[in-house]
Write a structure and sequence with these properties.
9 strands, alpha/beta, 34% helix, ABC_transpr_LolD-like, Rossmann fold, binds adenosine-5'-triphosphate, disordered C terminus
Amino acid sequence: MSDSIRAKRIRRTPMLTVRNLTKSFTTPEGAKVRVIDVADFHIDPGDQIALRGESGSGKTTFLHLIAGILRPNSGVITIDGVEMTALGESRRDALRAAKIGYIFQAFNLLQGHTVLENVLLGMSFAPGGADGVRARAMLDRVGLSHRLQHFPRELSTGQQQRVAVARALANRPKLVIADEPTGNLDNRNTAGALDLMKDTCRECGAALLLVSHDDATLARFDNVRDFTEINRMDNASRTPWGQPRKSGEAPSRIVE
Ligand SMILES: Nc1ncnc2c1ncn2[C@@H]1O[C@H](COP(=O)(O)OP(=O)(O)OP(=O)(O)O)[C@@H](O)[C@H]1O
């Protein structure tokens, strides 16, 4: 095979494919409610996609399934050509560490560790291991090179978000997943954080999948998909009480 044909084939391999994915939870009363029913979804390398969806529509569950944090009831998820859904827990963890950077709404920084340690610890699960030069370079890229020895509680919300971006990208992931990453930021910080996230993903060659119900966040993406058109969830699964949850409200009493 010539190099040009091989290069074209590599370029055509989607970064993420999702086929016939379902996930149900069981209520304390024993009823099963289907939260995820996605027939077909994919992301190409370098794509930047925002998913819009109302509270309780299953966005976080979908992201957890893609990252291998949750297991589906049925369906296939492929990350960079590797079938995540065929792997056991430890190999799913390894695939996630190697290929995926995850930015949580609450950032999930380790409070007892410094900014630099947070990035290094995140890297330590990936094949390349913790790399101080790379960690410092990422923190410099997000404008925090003067805060390496500070603890998360000593930073503003926007600065903590930038640590989360640096940590997510330090391993050179192929896919960055961001779950309402600007939910805790004001409008000015939201714009800056999104530009930083998008630019850094582009520089690192990572695809970006972000979910949000915030119009200001969605407006910064050319490619916005409506999650309710992708996911055919049961109406009953919107909440166990039949009303959409409000953003920030505690999760339902349903157990997995
Ligand atoms: N671990 C779980 N056990 C039981 N039910 C769950 C679990 N996780 C989510 N659910 C239920 O699944 C539905 C979808 O929740 P999910 O958090 O995925 O929605 P979301 O679109 O991310 O909502 P939000 O925008 O409010 O964060 C909700 O009804 C929720 O109560």
